[in-house]
Every structure is written in C-alpha cells, then in structure tokens.
C-alpha cells in the first residue's frame, strides 16, 4: 500500500498564510514596499493601477493590524505618511520575489 | 540622489500571479494536490475544513481553466473524478512549500 503521510498541518499552515495575504491586492501592496522600501499612499495607488483609495486604505489597515507593515507620519508641511515593511513583513521577501518570477512567466504563457 | 529603479514590471507580474491565485482557497487547493499527488473532490473538501461544495467546485473549475490542474474521470463504478496538478501547476511547488513554512511560523507568532 502506498505511503500515506498526513499533510493536514501543512495545508492548515497555507490556509493561515492566505488568511493574512488574501485578496488580489495584499501581496502586490507588500511588494511595492519590498521594492521601494518606503512608499507613500499616492505612490502605492499609482503602482497598483486599478485599486480605489477606499480599498487601498482598507488593505493597508489590515496589513498594519497583522504587523506586516508600519505607518510613519513625517513632520513635513503638509504631513507625509509613509508605509514600510516591518521586520516581520520582510520575512515574505523570498515569496514575493518568487511570485514576481512566476507571474512574469505566467504572463508569457497566457499571452501565447 | 538615491537610485530610483522602476519596478512596475515586477509589481505587474505579482498582480498577474495573484489574479490566478486569488481568493483564500486557491493556493490551499493546489497544495492538497502538491502534497497528495491525486485527490478526489471529497478528499479536498475534507482537507480544507470550511469550504462549501459549491465554492470548491467553482475554484476547481477556475484552476482547470487556468491550466494549473487537470481532472481525470476513472471508469470505476460509480465513476471517480480525480484532480491533479498539471506540469504547469507543479511550477508553483516551491512557492507552496515556502508559504506553508511561512504560515506555520505565522501561526506561532499570532498564537504568541
């Protein structure tokens, strides 16, 4: 009989990861800070063509609650708000890079 | 002045990847086939506690349309339908493994 290893814990771990990273925008948003280090709201909005300000606000708030990003208010006139990855957020860098590579190949595949 | 490399293509590539892998279930579903090779509908439904049959059907259909999985009908009595990763689907294996590792650490982080 074939070996039947139980992968329940692995599948649950993926579900936990996707629970934080879910939605079509979260990983893209994290990637902007991964590539540019610090990023303002308006920069991110330009990076991600198609996201509404309301949606971007919501996603940033959730990422902040999950301690993946931090919000820094600079005492400029007018104030500037910058977003960056926390040390914990940076642990996703390898996955983000691999997804970018995969997505780039995928684009070629679907474009024929 | 700091170097300003443009990462528009990388960010777009991630968006393309997440367009196919979006939703909280897709990567979990792919992972069941990655871990067990061939998987029946009812197995996947058990692997992923909480998904409805209707939702699972929809996700499987989308993954099949995107050529990441294939559906095999076995001539048993009654017929058995099995799902497995295509060669293209297997290109996601590294990302799936890394997400499982990250998710497992994340669970420890949120559990304190």
From TrEMBL, chains A, B:
<feature type="domain" description="HTH hxlR-type">
    <location>
        <begin position="6"/>
        <end position="111"/>
    </location>
</feature>
<dbReference type="GO" id="GO:0003677">
    <property type="term" value="F:DNA binding"/>
</dbReference>
<keyword id="KW-0805">Transcription regulation</keyword>
<dbReference type="InterPro" id="IPR036388">
    <property type="entry name" value="WH-like_DNA-bd_sf"/>
</dbReference>
<dbReference type="InterPro" id="IPR036390">
    <property type="entry name" value="WH_DNA-bd_sf"/>
</dbReference>
<keyword id="KW-0804">Transcription</keyword>
<dbReference type="InterPro" id="IPR002577">
    <property type="entry name" value="HTH_HxlR"/>
</dbReference>
<dbReference type="Pfam" id="PF01638">
    <property type="entry name" value="HxlR"/>
</dbReference>
<protein>
    <submittedName>
        <fullName>Putative HTH-type transcriptional regulator ytcD</fullName>
    </submittedName>
</protein>
<keyword id="KW-0238">DNA-binding</keyword>
């Amino acid at each position: 009989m074939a070996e039947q290893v139980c992968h329940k814990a692995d599948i649950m771990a993926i579900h936990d990861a996707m629970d934080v990273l879910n939605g079509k925008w979260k990983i893209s948003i994290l990637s902007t800070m991964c590539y540019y280090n610090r990023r303002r709201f308006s920069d991110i909005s330009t990076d991600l063509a198609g996201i509404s300000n309301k949606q971007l606000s919501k996603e940033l708030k959730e990422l902040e609650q999950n301690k993946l990003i931090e919000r820094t208010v600079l005492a400029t006139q007018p104030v500037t708000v910058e977003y960056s990855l926390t040390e914990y957020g940076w642990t996703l860098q390898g996955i983000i890079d691999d997804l970018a590579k995969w997505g780039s190949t995928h684009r070629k595949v679907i474009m024929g």
